[in-house]
């Protein structure tokens, strides 16, 4: 068996923060997370990777304040090398082939002073080395497979194919749910904004109508009666 998987670490960083706050996730090759990024703050996540593995990351801003659905994103290798940098984007998908070591990806909202962001991201790790080792262990317990029309390797290949397709379906459905939540939040925000400005326009129209009625009434008043 290979070495145990290390958990994904969450580290909240701020410009004036002295010591980062870390949170631990349960070990998993596929992880998704939703968090709130306050205005003027930055949050970073750390993920250890194996050599010749694959790291795929999808993110999107699901809800934000009046400043808009945008955030800065960057992915760094432990040697300080910047692999990916997205400036003021609402979503993105990135895949990198990894080396042995720790990778850090950050969401930066320091450019905003009033608007917090709700960010969803999904992390998919491939070729981490453990699943293949687990699949090899069963072979030493199997004998006499030459008499079978279908070898156990073929059955395992079919099962792995179905498992991969199911996992991909789950990932796509999770991403679609995140997009649906973002669209619903945008629609609710637009609905509230339309109602607010409609009430403002209605109030202005009522005030203008009252002023017009008063002015017209004053024009047709008999000033001679007022003098007598």
TrEMBL record:
**Keywords (A to Z) from UniProt:** Endoplasmic reticulum, Membrane, Signal, Transmembrane, Transmembrane helix
Tell me the membrane topology, using the record's own terms.
Single-pass type I membrane protein
Protein origin, superkingdom: Eukaryota
Segments spanning the bilayer are: 196-216
Q: Check the record and name the PROSITE patterns matching this protein.
A: GOLD
Show the GO cellular component annotation of the record.
cis-Golgi network; endoplasmic reticulum exit site; endoplasmic reticulum membrane; endoplasmic reticulum-Golgi intermediate compartment membrane
Tell me where in or outside the cell this protein is found.
Endoplasmic reticulum membrane; Endoplasmic reticulum-Golgi intermediate compartment membrane; Golgi apparatus, cis-Golgi network membrane; Membrane
Tell me the ranges covered by the GOLD domain, including all copies.
42-125
Q: Return one Gene Ontology term, BP aspect.
A: Golgi ribbon formation
> What is the protein named?
Transmembrane p24 trafficking protein 5
Q: Which species does this protein come from?
A: Coturnix japonica
